[in-house]
Design a protein that fits this description.
- Helix content is 76%, strand content 2%.
- By secondary structure, the protein is an all-alpha fold.
- The chain has two domains: 413 residues, Growth Hormone, Chain: A (Up-down Bundle); 32 residues.
- The strands form two sheets. Strands 1-2 form a two-stranded antiparallel sheet.
- The radius of gyration is 24 Å and the shape is globular.
Length: 483
């Protein structure tokens, strides 16, 4: 299936494959980082947790600071460069076990690579789809992301339980290194067209300054910061759940398979759910509120009793909440982004996913040492640990409901009232409209539209009230609706 995007031929299957490979590499590494640091590098629970958290924080820092480069250099260039840098970082993580090199790999090299390449797919989707199918396309690619996560989680268990019980993490990291090469290869097949090239003629610092002074950017920032507590649950599933399950139910516990329940549910249901909610014209903020309530309260299922079925039930309920709200976050934020600054906004919208790691990773390490000590199983207090984490998670839906009246004024990412001053909003609207014309119409069609508009405008000026009647008749608009 080849789709015509942005008026040019862009094979969406190539973007889909890239989305799958990048998701596979990230999730395969994320779920083994803490066990790898503890069992292979020799870190304590606390050190491993805070290292995981620092890794996520640095990804977020570089995503925000390097995001404008995607708008300035283009999607294709940054995707290739970011993936190459990430591959070098993975190789360092695999082969260099000295603490300095481990930190250099996690906090600098890998973080720069993921920060630079992270916003690229979201930007490409927005620029290569029309407003009518954009929300559904975001949900489709979110499902593809979860296909990568599903394969990664199942492969972790297969290698850990059936291939190499002594050093399974080395094999998984090597596969991820190979995956970066595959991703770069497929990226070369992306066409170097207007949609995936640089969208800015201004210099980088002018672009960054414009973004910082944009009110919409800070509205998005506040929105995603409020989501931090509930988004931490994703990080608990990566950093805490594997060690919790093996220390509670034994080394042979298939934590990868249990984690795979989440993407297995998201894959078939995310896109249909998004389509249904869009068809019903339900406000995106309502969707986010309902989904976060379900996800946040799902954590309390783990407080009922320590039996293996409860983590499974928890993963089912948590996934329902994720299906409802998570695919809408990136799309909602990018809808507010003016053309040419999508990557900056996408980086901001990804802050919860990565910045929450510093808290969730640190808490995971500290809670493992305090409530799930590796050498003292008799002192385990897993249910109490999950109760505390659940109380932290419910902060998000409480705050979202508290600011509900303000965000309710925004319809599908477009505010009813201008977020910027009237002059700036009108200039931006005209600029975006002109860009959409160039993307979805041929140059001849655009020129014809402009000639017709000029003729109507000239007729209006020369004919006075007669010209106004002609415009009214042409557009079939009642006189009372015209200025």
């Amino acid at each position: 299936m080849t789709a015509e995007c942005c008026g040019m031929g862009v094979d969406l299957w190539v973007l889909a494959v890239i989305r799958f490979t990048t998701a596979f590499m990230y999730f395969a590494e994320a779920i083994i980082v803490v066990p790898y640091l503890i069992h292979e590098i020799g870190f304590s629970d606390s050190q491993a947790g805070w290292s995981y958290g620092g890794w996520g924080l640095m990804i977020s820092v570089f995503a925000v600071t390097l995001g404008p480069l995607v708008d300035y250099w283009g999607v294709r260039t940054c995707l290739i460069g970011g993936t190459l840098i990430y591959g070098v970082g993975l190789y360092m993580f695999l082969t260099m076990h000295d603490t300095l090199y481990v930190f250099m790999s996690l906090f600098v090299v890998q973080s720069i690579g993921l920060g630079l390449s992270g916003p690229c797919i979201g930007v490409a989707i927005k620029r290569c789809t029309s407003p009518e199918n954009r929300d559904v396309m975001f949900a489709v690619f979110y499902s593809i992301l979860n296909v990568g996560a599903l394969v990664a989680f199942l492969l972790v268990d297969f290698i850990r339980l059936h291939v190499s019980k002594d050093h399974p993490h080395h094999i998984l990291l090597l596969i991820c290194v190979i995956g970066t090469g595959v991703t770069i290869l497929f990226t070369l097949f992306l066409p170097d067209n207007q949609a995936l090239a640089s969208a800015q003629s201004d210099n980088f610092f002018s672009l960054l300054k414009e973004s910082v002074y944009d009110t919409r950017l800070w509205l998005i920032f506040f929105f995603v910061v409020v989501l931090l507590p509930v988004r931490q649950i994703f990080r608990y599933n990566d950093a805490l759940m594997p060690e919790y399950l093996t220390r509670t139910y034994g080394e042979g516990t298939p934590y990868g398979t249990i984690s795979a329940i989440n993407p297995a549910l998201v894959i078939p249901f995310a896109a249909p759910m998004c389509w249904f909610l869009d068809k019903k014209n339900i406000h995106p903020y309502d969707v986010v509120c309902v989904g976060t309530v379900i996800s946040a309260f799902s954590v309390f299922i783990l407080c009922i009793k320590e039996r293996i079925e409860y983590p499974i039930i928890y993963m089912f309920v948590f996934s329902v909440g994720e299906i409802i709200y998570s695919p809408r976050i990136s799309a909602y934020c990018l809808e507010l982004a003016p053309h040419g600054r999508e990557a900056t906004y996408a980086a901001i919208s990804d802050i919860p996913t990565f910045a929450s790691k510093i808290f969730a990773g640190g808490l995971a390490g500290e809670f493992l040492e305090k409530y799930m000590a590796k050498d003292h199983p008799e002192s385990h207090r897993g249910t109490y640990m999950w109760f505390l984490l659940g109380c932290i998670s419910v902060v998000s839906p409480v705050l979202l409901i508290a600011v509900y009246p303000f965000y309710k004024n925004m319809e599908k990412g477009t505010p009813k009232e201008p977020l910027l001053d009237q002059t700036t909003s009108e200039e931006q609207r005209l600029k975006d409209t002109d860009h959409e014309e160039r993307l979805f119409k041929s140059d001849s069609e655009v020129e014809k539209t402009r000639r017709d508009s000029a003729q109507i405008h000239g007729s209006t000026e020369s004919g006075g009230s007669t010209g106004r009647v002609e415009v009214q008749s042409k557009n079939k608009v009642p006189p009372s609706d015209l200025p």
